[in-house]
Amino acid sequence: QKEVEQNSGPLSVPEGAIASLNCTYSDRGSQSFFWYRQYSGKSPELIMFIYSNGDKEDGRFTAQLNKASQYVSLLIRDSQPSDSATYLCAVTPGYKLSFGAGTTVTVRA
Amino acid sequence: DVKVTQSSRYLVKRTGEKVFLECVQDMDHENMFWYRQDPGLGLRLIYFSYDVKMKEKGDIPEGYSVSREKKERFSLILESASTNQTSMYLCASSPDRGQGEQYFGPGTRLTVT
Q1: A63-108, pLDDT tens digit by residue?
Q2: Whole-number percent of chain A with pLDDT over 70
Q3: Burial class (CB in 10 A: 0-12, 13-18, 19+), A14
Q4: What b/e string do you get for B43-78 counting C-beta neighbours within 10 Å, with b at 16 or more?
Q5: Portion 29-88 of B in contact with A at CB < 8 A
Q6: Which helix (H) or strand (E) holds A32?
Q7: Is A27 touching B (CB cutoff 8 A)?
Q8: Are the beta carbons of B42 and A94 separated by less than 8 Å?
Q9: Which helix (H) or strand (E) segment is A3 a member of?
Q10: How far is the C-alpha of B104 from the C-alpha of B102, rounded, in Å?
Q11: Cβ contacts (< 8 Å) between A88 and chain B: which residues?
Q12: Number of other CB atoms surrounding residue A10 within 10 Å
């Protein structure tokens, strides 16, 4: 079993819709959870982090964490063409990150 | 803003050459990491360092070595480059007192011919 699994893509959503990305992890000791955005040919960019159960909102992004279910998600509201990218979920119990394989999102204009 | 820079964006080397990839961060971060990223395989950790002159192997250290003589600089060395080391190499850093968040450099696309 992979340490971090993300829903397989690609995910295609119309402009203005909500994109929903899911991630599950196997290490119950994981304490911190991150979402990175990676444009084609570029390096990953940290866009959200969450440490406590519940929701965390930052602009059009909402991260949701459920440690009991070992599940973290990212919602992108009012999706824009500029949101088209690969989104990586990462978790850590300490300072080494375990990354998921990523979900590629395409926002259709 | 955290700034992580890498010495080259693109590099072409021949099989058997010794290759140096350098990474510098300007935020006084204790931890530094080297990854490679390949299509279908995701990000894989090669080596990391949690202090000057300290290093630990990641998931795929074979064929690589690292050097950290100064806190801000972390070098990845390919002792004898091979074609299967053609990849995107990403450096990252993170603070010791953070929550594990890592900040990435722009990456070096290395081609070994």
Answers
A1: 999 999 999 999 999 999 999 999 999 998 777 899 999 999 999 9
A2: 99
A3: exposed
A4: bebbbbbbeeeebeebeeeeebebbbeebbebbbeb
A5: 31, 42-43, 45, 48, 50
A6: strand A32-38
A7: no
A8: no
A9: none
A10: 6
A11: 42-43
A12: 10
Tell me how far apart the alpha carbons of residues B17 and A48 are, in angstroms, rounded to a whole number.
40
**pLDDT digit string (tens) for B21-69?**
999 999 999 999 999 999 988 899 999 999 998 899 999 999 999 999 9
Q: Which amino acid, residue B103?
A: Y
pLDDT category at A1 given cuts 50, 70, 90 is low
Retrieve residue B63's tokens.
């064929």
Beta partners for residue B59, in sequence order: none
Those residues whose C-beta lies under 8 Å from the C-beta of residue A59, and which sit 6 or more positions away, are: none
pLDDT at B2 over 70: no
Structure-block tokens of residue A4: 């971090």
CB neighbours of residue B22 within 10 Å: 17
Q: What is the mean pLDDT of residues B87-96?
A: 94
Q: What is the pLDDT of residue A94?
A: 75
Rg of chain A, C-alpha, whole Å: 13
Sheet holding A61-66, edge to edge: A4-6, A19-25, A71-76, A61-66, A54-58
